[in-house]
Amino acid sequence: MASTPAPAKSSKRRGKRAATVALTADLPPDATLAERAYHVIRDRIVRLELPPGGLIREEELMQDLGMSRTPVREALLRLSLERLVVMVSRRGTFVTDVNIGEVGRIYELRRGLEAQAAEWAAERRQEADIAEIDALIDEMRSEPQHPEHTDARTQVPLDQRAHFLIYRMCGNHFAEDVLKTHFFLSARMWFLAADHVTMDEPFDLLIELFEAIKAGDAQTARRLAIAHSEHAEQSLRAAL
């Protein structure tokens, strides 16, 4: 996600908190209870509804989700492998803290994989993907027209859909799984930084990237994916 660091002085838009938009559901239609629990808990963590460092109360989750302990525990175990929760013996399960020092490591990994995914997407995208690409481009172009409603809480879900489309078009489900996991690690940081960044032109590089993918220009797609990632990392570092 690309954005512009916020100025030191507050603005009218900063004074009015933008509403959080729900993350895009990526739940398979045949999902198990554990998978459903995982998606709900993951999104609450990313959106800071379950705050960094907070204790996760399994009994409350079970009641809220209408599930038994087993699927909730399986979901938490999966989230621990993805570094969104940590299970501490005899103390309980906690949401992991956000370590600002890990911004560079997360983006270092994402940048390399996303550059390759973009290159593959340009080589492997299907004609059936064009309509979805065009719809996303139109939506991204419309976003800057409403800056008073724009910050990470509203931008991350659209950014998620854009990146997930690239991941799918790359045609490698192993890369897709790793990229999705690390997308959510960085997305949580964007929600945390939402009050400290403006995002007046967040999607310019992504729009260019999608145009390159449509044109089948693999090397340009790779270059733009790297530029987009570098811009995003710089903006996030400035905000945090």
Number of domains in the coordinates?
A: 2
Q: In one word, what is the shape?
A: globular
Specify the CATH class of the largest domain. Mainly Alpha
Strand-residue proportion: 5-15%
- In the predicted model, the low-confidence regions spanning at least 5 consecutive residues are 1-19
Name given to the CATH architecture of the largest domain = Up-down Bundle
**Helix fraction bin:** 55-70%
CATH topology of the largest domain: Four Helix Bundle (Hemerythrin (Met), subunit A)
CATH superfamily of the largest domain: GntR ligand-binding domain-like
Instruction: Tell me the radius of gyration.
Output: 18 Å
Count the beta strands: 5
- N-end to C-end Cα span: 15 Å
**Major sheet: size, sense and barrel closure?**
3 strands, antiparallel
Mean pLDDT: 86
Structural class: mainly alpha
Highlighted features:
mainly alpha; disordered N terminus; 240 residues; Four Helix Bundle (Hemerythrin (Met), subunit A); Arc Repressor Mutant, subunit A; three-stranded antiparallel beta sheet; 6% strand
Molecular structure report:
With 240 residues, the protein is mainly alpha-helical. The protein has two domains: 33-95, Winged helix-like DNA-binding domain superfamily/Winged helix DNA-binding domain (Arc Repressor Mutant, subunit A, Orthogonal Bundle); 100-239, Four Helix Bundle (Hemerythrin (Met), subunit A). The chain has ten helices and five strands. The chain has helices at residues 12-15, 33-46, 58-65, 69-81, 103-124, 130-142, 152-169, 173-192, 204-215, 218-239; strands at 4-5, 55-56, 85-88, 92-95, 197-198. The protein has a three-stranded antiparallel beta sheet with strand order 2-4-3. A two-stranded antiparallel sheet has the order 1-5. A hairpin with a 3-residue loop joins strand 3 (85-88) and strand 4 (92-95). Helix 2 (33-46) packs across helix 4 and helix 9 (204-215) packs antiparallel against helix 10. The chain is globular and about 55 Å long.
